[in-house]
Specification:
There is one protein chain. It contains 7 helices and 4 strands; from the N terminus they run E-H-H-E-H-H-E-H-H-E-H. With about 140 residues, it is α+β, with helices and mostly antiparallel strands. The protein has one domain: Nucleoside diphosphate kinase-like domain (Alpha-Beta Plaits). Strands 2-3-1-4 form a 4-stranded antiparallel beta sheet. The longest helix has 11 residues, at about 120-130.
Length: about 140
């Protein structure tokens, strides 16, 4: 099985949508390999979003993802599972996300867009290692 990291971000958990997001992943045929409801500490958030360091939104991104619990998951499925998840999520900007995608149906703001999914197989391996080192 191929694996990727998915995070139901604080806004999804606060709005009671984590179960809806998990259901959409499972309805697609993906399976949860690990899941944990946790507050992502700022130091881990900084490691997770390291590629954004130095950009004007980095501090607000770290603050947002660490403000309250997220549902952090390892999802598995066929080859390129990360691509399947990214397609289900829709574009980062919900205004550009088509109906039928998670962000197109449920999100309204780019800064709080409900869900994170690894953007490549390499990112998936790195991110799973950060959040679930015992699976590496």
């Amino acid at each position: 099985m191929n694996r990727t990291l998915v995070i139901c971000k604080p806004d999804a958990v606060e709005r009671g949508l984590a179960g809806v997001l998990v259901a959409r992943l499972e309805a697609k045929g993906l399976r949860l390999a690990a899941a944990e409801l946790r507050v992502i500490e700022p130091d881990l958030a900084e490691q997770h979003y390291a590629e954004h360091r130095g950009r004007d939104y980095f501090d607000s991104l770290v603050k947002f993802i660490s403000r309250s619990p997220s549902l952090v998951m390892v999802v598995e499925g066929p080859e390129d599972t990360w691509k399947i998840v990214r397609t289900l999520m829709g574009p980062t900007n919900p205004a550009e996300a088509p109906p039928g995608t998670i962000r197109g149906d449920l999100a309204t703001a780019t800064g709080e867009n409900l869900i994170h999914g690894s953007d490549s197989a390499d990112s998936a391996r790195r991110e799973i290692g950060l959040f679930f080192p015992h699976l590496g």
